[in-house]
């Protein structure tokens, strides 16, 4: 476990916050050991420098180390003392510079709370390691396998979104989205439309999912989400080609990620911390190193979101989204 990290002995024991997510923004000061305070206990932290071109850091815990992947490339896992260096109760720690704490540079961090320490899950054909926040509909799953593997995900119902990355070699990100269906995937590091593949995400169940990504034994990490009334929704919509096209969630989102599924389009990310008022017109793209990009954007409303731009609302096009309160 990382320094100062709390240990939760069972995957379902974490007391879920009102949301699995907190969002932090800061200006880098190049000081090692800097603490970024959040309202949850992070188990996965996504960091992006927003004022200068840079890679994303998708940080996870691996034994005593924090390692990271970048959603803008297909590289294997890396370790850096200049990025996020530990997860703590109510905070995460930064190194002296690099991509997370360069002096004078603006950054954003999305902190996701799982279930604390990983526990073994034997529901599938192999044993997976799972950190699950069941009440919040979020789990982190690691497993090692080659060929077809049925993997326990630790949630209380079937995930509607699974983000998968090979940790060992350069290989693209795979994304399952329930509105797109099984035996298809989207690539988090690409702008491509959904691609058919008979081996990926062949079965998604209440306790397991099945994949056959590689015949060679590799280690994978997976982020699993399902909708939870009041603070998280995985959904889809058809573009209207006009302002509005409101999507009703039942809550006011703080985080929104949108992807076109039947054409070329980026993974657009909006949040209420970088833009606290409507229109939410600063966006990042998970598949690029770009800085904040200004668009007409979206409006976050008390019970959903609506559109001010055709970038995410082209007439007749199909989209998926992840919205978190």
Topology:
Elements (H helix, E strand, L loop, with lengths): L20 E7 L6 E4 L6 E6 L7 E6 L2 E5 L8 E2 L4 E5 L2 E4 L11 E7 L6 E3 L6 E6 L4 E8 L3 E4 L8 E6 L7 E4 L6 E2 L9 E2 L6 E2 L3 E4 L6 E8 L6 E7 L5 E5 L6 E6 L6 E5 L8 E6 L7 E9 L2 E4 L10 E7 L1
Antiparallel strand pairs: 1-9, 2-8, 3-4, 3-9, 4-5, 5-6, 7-8, 10-11, 11-12, 12-20, 13-19, 14-15, 14-20, 16-17, 18-19, 21-28, 22-27, 23-24, 23-28, 24-25, 25-26, 26-27
Describe what you observe in this structure.
It is a single chain. With 325 residues, this protein is mostly beta strands. It has 3 domains: 21-112, no CATH class; 119-225, no CATH class; 232-324, no CATH class. It is 0% helix and 44% strand. It has no helices and 28 strands. It has strands at 21-27, 34-37, 44-49, 57-62, 65-69, 78-79, 84-88, 91-94, 106-112, 119-121, 128-133, 138-145, 149-152, 161-166, 174-177, 184-185, 195-196, 203-204, 208-211, 218-225, 232-238, 244-248, 255-260, 267-271, 280-285, 293-301, 304-307, 318-324. The chain has an 8-stranded antiparallel sheet, with no helix packed on it. It has a 6-stranded antiparallel sheet with strand order 1-9-3-4-5-6, with no helix packed on it. A 6-stranded antiparallel sheet has the order 10-11-12-20-14-15, with no helix packed on it. Strand 23 and strand 24 (267-271) form a beta hairpin. The model is unreliable at 1-17 (pLDDT under 50).
């Amino acid at each position: 476990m990382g320094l100062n990290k709390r240990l939760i002995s069972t995957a379902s024991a974490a007391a879920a916050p009102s949301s699995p997510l907190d969002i932090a923004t800061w200006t880098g000061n190049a000081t090692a050991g800097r603490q970024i305070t959040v309202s949850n206990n992070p188990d996965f932290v996504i960091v992006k420098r927003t004022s200068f071109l840079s890679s994303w850091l998708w940080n996870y815990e691996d034994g005593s180390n924090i390692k990271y992947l970048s959603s803008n490339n297909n590289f294997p896992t890396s370790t850096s003392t200049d990025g996020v260096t530990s997860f703590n109760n109510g905070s995460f720690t930064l190194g002296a510079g690099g991509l997370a704490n360069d002096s004078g540079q603006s950054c954003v961090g999305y902190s996701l709370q799982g279930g604390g320490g990983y526990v073994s899950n034997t529901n599938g054909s192999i044993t997976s390691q799972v950190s699950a926040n069941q009440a919040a509909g979020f789990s982190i799953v690691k497993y090692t396998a080659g060929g077809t593997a049925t993997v326990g995900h630790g949630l209380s119902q079937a995930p509607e979104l699974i983000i998968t990355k090979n940790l060992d070699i350069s290989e693209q990100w795979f994304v399952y989205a329930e509105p797109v269906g099984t035996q298809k995937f989207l690539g988090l590091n690409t702008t491509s439309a959904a691609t058919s593949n008979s081996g990926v995400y062949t079965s998604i169940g209440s306790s397991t999912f099945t994949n056959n990504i590689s015949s060679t034994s590799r280690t994978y990490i997976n982020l699993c989400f399902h909708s939870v009334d009041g603070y998280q929704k995985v959904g889809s919509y058809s573009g209207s080609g006009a302002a509005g096209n409101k999507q009703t969630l039942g809550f006011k989102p703080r985080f929104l990620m949108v992807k076109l599924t039947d054409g070329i389009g980026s993974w657009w990310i909006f949040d209420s911390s970088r833009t606290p008022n409507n229109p939410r017109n600063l966006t990042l793209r998970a598949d690029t190193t770009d800085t904040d990009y200004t668009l007409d954007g979206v409006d976050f409303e008390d019970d959903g979101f609506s559109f001010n731009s055709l970038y995410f609302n082209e007439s007749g096009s199909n989209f998926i989204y992840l919205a978190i309160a």
